[in-house]
């Protein structure tokens, strides 16, 4: 489904934590990149007062912010920021400080974007960063965006995926402690992520794409010298995946696999825990990457950085990752039904 006046997908762009850089980078993205409007119809889900303040901090005109009620009725004028007002004004939230009000607002923006997607008013969701501690202070105890989105769409098998170009980093676990991540690297979870990755590449038209899993332990366990999980969990999961027709490989020591992926040997990598994937990815790609949630019935793409309270309000935050997120969401949205159908039909167990 697309907007009434254009074939371009409509994006719900959540404002994120308004105490952070979200309003600034949203303003820069929508007002300084007019070519983006040729690819999509971005509609902000957030707070008009915070959006206007963000425009001012970015050195842009706050009068460009217009409140609308129907995303499908957006004009998509490159000189405007069209916004769905969600909840009370957040004008009094201090910039650069942890705020329960901002955390509650960030939560509400995501929930509203999910509602708009479920009801067919938007074709994809793009999220500016939220602060997890602020969201918790606001009374919403979710580990992060990914888990909240999964809850709103009632899915239990999903993966946080970092992407730059044709490179995709899936994650067996994400927003949990390292100790919990080891415990959560189970046979069922490994099976599910291999299935998700295989469904995704199949929907992209590359069903034979190799999928490599990083070893959980140093040297992928080194024949059990450094732990048993690689031999007991990951190796059998790879064997089962291959029996299901998936071109799976590993476990491969992470310090060998990830550099090889960066050089182009592997396009689909499964990391076992958050920092195993995030740290090298961000070191190499910086703001040239995005975060995609695979396993949802609607496209969701996010920036690959946080709220940056230390520079919030200074107008110096770069919008590059948010621009990429909008472009990637617009590119994925028309074919996402195939991704969702493939992923949902491949699920074998809940996570």
From TrEMBL:
Listed SUPFAM superfamilies: Isocitrate/Isopropylmalate dehydrogenase-like
GO molecular function: 4-hydroxythreonine-4-phosphate dehydrogenase activity
Its EC number(s): 1.1.1.262
Enzyme's top EC category: oxidoreductase
Keyword terms of this UniProt record: Metal-binding, NAD, Oxidoreductase
Pfam family, one: PdxA
Protein's UniProt keywords contain NAD: yes
Gene3D superfamilies assigned: Isopropylmalate Dehydrogenase
Listed InterPro entries: PdxA_fam
Stated family: Belongs to the PdxA family. PdxA2 subfamily.
Protein known as: 4-hydroxythreonine-4-phosphate dehydrogenase PdxA
Lineage: Bacteria, Bacillati, Actinomycetota, Actinomycetes, Pseudonocardiales
